[in-house]
Amino acid sequence: MPKILGEPLNTPRVDVDALPLFQGKGEKAKGLLLYVHVPFCHSRCAYCSFHSQVFNDVTFSWYMKTLLLEIELWGRRLKRPSIATIYFGGGTPSLVPLNQLQRIMEAIHKHFRPMPRMEVTLEANPESTQDASWFRGLLSLGINRLSMGVQSLTDDDLKRLDRPHNARMAVEAFQQARQAGFTNISLDLIWGLPRQRLKQWLDQLKTISRLGPEHLSCYNLTIEEGTPLYRQSLEMDLELPYEQEQGKMFIYGAEELESLGYLQYEISNFARMGFESRHNQGYWEERDFLGLGPSAVTTIGNRRYRNPLFMDEYDAAVRGDFSSIGFEELDEQTRLTEMVMLALRTSKGLDLKEHRKRAGFDLVKTHEKLIKALIANDLARINRGRLRLTKPGMAVSNVIMERIALAEPPAPSSTPMSTPT
Ligand code: SF4
To answer: Ligand 1 centre and the CA of 44: distance in Å?
Structure first.
């Protein structure tokens, strides 16, 4: 999952029994998105700022006990709700032994109501996968989608990133999964790497597409403070591609993938027709989601809960019936800002009519100058009532979204405004 990490909030205490369930219209019928965070990895990668620790048996068995209890508690509180998707993210969920994954899946089936054709994704890293029979074991548990952390098919890149696998292991893991019968596999790649140039990135995409995955997630390398890569960047020139070259890598990379049959349906995500990630699409459509495990985030209705980052605090929170977990009450302004930010990440774009209905004003009028400038510069388009970013617009989406978010909503007016379509 796109992980949302944060410090526990110093905000009101949860009265879990008083949870407003599924406030969004039709949420109950659509089902909940369930995310399970597995905070363990083989080792730390040089760029990683996610919440994870090196796997050890003692902490893992503590985690399992707490997680199973958390599943039971939320299932009870939410009155055994329907779930549309499950996503095991991390960390490295493929480190969890099959018999333990089975316990988690059984607990989910016992305390929630899986919907027919539920999408169940497991993030897997090449160093922790096994042979085809291990992959068949995953299928037998109901896991029907894999998201594999390949990151690069060049060994030098993988070494620089401190990834604990090489390119050959990644290809073999993919082939074992195929042989076992997985028909929905996504591969993660990182671009904008030290010493990487446009041609190498485009070559990577051609090579990876020959494997034939159904889905690709391509993330721009970000150097986060506190990571080993950040410390290296202070000591030496990492020879990262310049900004202009990074822009080309994004735009030409997306064009290359589309020519290979992968549609860009979100800034970083590409899929063959019908293989978009239903779980992640749910986030971009602001669906309710329940996050389990340390650091996981939940949003139900207008409330957002963040589990503590560390095992001891997480365990105490769950055993204390969540009474120590703070929540954030999302006001309408925050939800509207999120609606715009999330929708503009997608190729579908923002439904202007829906936005006007919720916001009470017309974004195209209130941000007229900005939107006209974006359209004139081929950074955005309005088409069939939706505001969409073009590929060049997506390449600078952070700046555009910041400008839109910073613009003030209008003073209340008695004259209804309309949206040009
Ligand atoms: S595998 Fe993923 S979560 Fe684990 S250390 Fe590497 S980047 Fe971080």
So the answer is: 6
